[in-house]
Structures are given as C-alpha cells and as structure tokens.
Amino acid sequence: MSYNQVPVQQIPEVLAYEQAKAAYTNFKVQHPQLFQQLDYLVEQLNTTMEAAEKAVRAQQATCGDFDLYQKVTKIDGKALHDAIGRETFIAIGGTVKMMADYKVDGKRLQLAVAQNRVAKDIVEEVTKEEQRYHKPTAAVIP
Q: Can you name the residues that pair with 63 across neighbouring β-strands?
C-alpha cells in the first residue's frame, strides 16, 4: 500500500531521477558488451577483495589497500561479573546499569482512551507518525 501518490512531474527531483535512470538504461542497452565486461570486472574485483580481506584479517596484517590501523581490547563485562561476582566486580571499577525501556501497545492505548483511562490530548502529544520509504538502490561503478 502506498500513501499520497503524486505524479512524477510534481516533484522536480524525482523527475530528474527518472530522466537520469532512463538515460543510464538507454546507454546500457546501446552498449551491452561494455556493461557485460564491466559487470565481469566488478564481480571479479569484489570477489577478490573479499578473499583478500579474509586473508589479511587472518594474518592480522597490513597489506596493499588493507590497512590494520587499530587494535582494540574489549572486555565482556557480563562474563567477568558472572565469573568474579558483583562485589569484586564493583570493587575493581566495574559498573552495572539497569536501563528502562518504555513501550506500549498502540491498540491497547486506544482502548484506554475509549475507556477514558487516558486523555486523548495526552496520547496526541506523545504520538508521532513515522514515514518509511522503499527506495531504489544506488548505482555503483568502482
């Protein structure tokens, strides 16, 4: 389901995108061998890049375009807490944070409004509409 459908001509930026997409598609149709070769080269580049990345990570090395620029030590705080106990964990500088996460079911909230358990103006104040879009993926030629 789509909302607020408007003609492409009504939004100049979308019209410009559609024109650019048509020009790209036409060029691709006019030069199929070029794009076939380009697709092959891009696939080869990406495949070899993934293999090279795995290799340098396995060897923990900097090599060519693959730069090992930083090493970070990470501590699993929960595992340490569980292993040494809360008292020792706190004593050595550990902290434990409890985070509240407030969620409410929208249908139950509307029911509460209908039952006059929550004021409608409060619900309107704390409710916002979020817009989500499907969009084309970017064209990529390295």
A: 66
Q: By the 8 A CB rule, do 56 and 68 touch?
A: yes
The tally of domains found in the chain comes to: 1
Report how far residue 122's alpha carbon sits from residue 109's, in angstroms, rounded to the nearest whole number. 11
Query: Is residue 21 domain-resident?
Result: yes
| Within-domain flag for 133 | no
Domain residues for the domain of 43 are 7-70
Tell me if 78 sits within 8 A of 97, measured CB to CB: no
CA distance 52 to 65: 10
- Give the three-state DSSP class for 63: strand
* Residue among 93, 122, 97, 94 nearest 110 (CA): 122
The model's pLDDT over 11-35, given as tens digits with 9 standing for 90+, comes to: 999 999 999 999 999 999 999 999 9
pLDDT of residue 108: 97
pTM of the full structure:
0.63
Q: Is residue 119 part of a domain?
A: no
HEC secondary structure over 73-119: CCCCHHHHHHHHCHHHHHHCCCCCCCCCCCCCCHHHHHHHHHCCCCC
* Nearest one of 104, 138, 101 to 24, comparing CA atoms: 138
